[in-house]
Amino acid sequence: MSENKKLPIGSVIGILGGGQLGRLLSISASQLGFKTHIFDPDPKAPAKQVTNLSSTFDYKDKRALENFANSVDVITFEFENIPVETIQICAELTSVFPNVNALSICQDRTNEKKFLNEMNIPSSPFVPAKSFQEILQSVHVLEPPLILKSSRFGYDGKGQKIIYSKEEIEGAASEFNDRPVILEKLIDFNLEISIIICRDMFGKIAVFDPAENLHENGILIESKVPASIPFSLASDAILIASKIVNALEYVGVMGIEFFVTKENKLLVNELAPRVHNSGHWTQSGCLINQFEQHIRAISGWPIGNGKRHSNVLMQNVLGSNVKLLDRNSNSSTNIYGKDDPKDGRKMGHKNYIR
Amino acid sequence: MSENKKLPIGSVIGILGGGQLGRLLSISASQLGFKTHIFDPDPKAPAKQVTNLSSTFDYKDKRALENFANSVDVITFEFENIPVETIQICAELTSVFPNVNALSICQDRTNEKKFLNEMNIPSSPFVPAKSFQEILQSVHVLEPPLILKSSRFGYDGKGQKIIYSKEEIEGAASEFNDRPVILEKLIDFNLEISIIICRDMFGKIAVFDPAENLHENGILIESKVPASIPFSLASDAILIASKIVNALEYVGVMGIEFFVTKENKLLVNELAPRVHNSGHWTQSGCLINQFEQHIRAISGWPIGNGKRHSNVLMQNVLGSNVKLLDRNSNSSTNIYGKDDPKDGRKMGHKNYIR
Predict the structure, then answer these.
(1) Where are the domains of chain A?
(2) Minimal Cα distance from B322: which residue of A?
């Protein structure tokens, strides 16, 4: 991007990934007067319903990626499981935000943990393991209860297993089939919160108020603001979040999940280098929501201040519940345009002003 | 629409007209999980950027309209200058909201005035005229200052001329070239307000707070809520608005403009059978904005209650001002995706929370 970094109105924003986050990003980009181009191997990717520009190719199709990169003015992605090579191919031809370094750290739990450790940012104790043998040894380093997670490509609680005793480790380890894993101490937390933070390309940072999150089986059920935490904890979380995005020279919106322990200490649980489900409340609680904020950041436009005007409860609509959507009208409803309401699949969300 | 009138998620909403209002309606329909199909003779209509379904044919192309109507589940329109015949063709094949009767009244100022008169709803004194001769005679019925308006197809102050003296009438009348016109008493008002009202297909009504509007040369410059009017005036405006939508058995959002006279009396100035520029503030001031509200109404979903959570100032971005968009970030920005920033053309709008 040139010295004048502000992308002109009418520019095309390329989005890798056409799920609900790509769809909501595309809608916000349209609102700001940009065109969007969705790249996704799935011809029925929901985001392809909300723009007239899309590409349907594999994420490893170099030629298709080059055509895509040459036809857009900036590229972003909706999820952290995009192959790093995909981003590298695109980044040779146009600007990609967030940067590939942030992506490669955040898409691998072991890298992420090491990054946090190096920054002296507290997270749960962990042991990385590359093989069945290493997993078996790890259980002697950390006391159960533990949580065994595949190091890459996990989401919504997939690729995770809780281990309550040393005896369970062998059975659990075999499930992971010699994929790289990470064994973490299972945290007995009071509650979970998240920070949605944005850093623009000039280094300016804005945060939204911390959300209090409720998960079931690893899937987010609801988020509410304000979170029931003291102001001092919120400040600490915000400082940690800004330290992270600064260290990564990050551009765009990042979601950071924290545990608040029984001792009221913060532990970083996970970094998501993208807009985040726990930030959907900002659509109804802030003048500029997380999607508009991300598009502003990656297009060199000024970002919002994150100020919240209302108390909001966000509830996810999962699986076939989408068919039972009640007829009440006290929530703003978002449905993602997915065909197949599989169990636990995120089909939409509802925002209530409380 | 069947007994169970609620349109299923994934249904296709057809929108006649692909300007900014069609675009913003399409975006809200997407948010609710509907697909949209834009019908507009202009291949570059801005709304065609925000969906993958569009048709580019004349509004009088019967076959194209039939194909369109057969491929969607419900039809709405973004502006009142759609030919009545277009709606009639569509209405034979699928549901169209608002209904054709409301459209034909609202697209003709003379019909509109007569409708209001019959309902005993106050509006400015007027005389309809079908010819040059009738215009000349009208000036003897009403005392100048007057405003001469073409009866149909006027918008944003186009097709209007102010007449300060009887002597000016001849020159003015000749400009209108024997088109049907209406000669209205020019109202010396204190301020202009508008009501954005919604009626659903079950007869339920919801209104947004009245907005105070500022026009220049017939073009809306800004709207703000709350309007600086007493509560009693707001109530009267709301009662008039509900009387209008009930009488028309209207389904969807309607914008109604009022003058507040120097004597603090309300006069209806204009009915717009569609979402309205002076309701754009609802995007930042309400949980469910006027676009989501309209889509909910026409798809049989429950409508919002219109409650306002914040004070909002909406400013239009006109013509080449779109190029000068400042870098501040205290407003939520909407740009409409139009190529050509002609003088006075509505290119976007900004919402400020005050």
Answers:
(1) 12-96, 125-185, 189-353
(2) A9
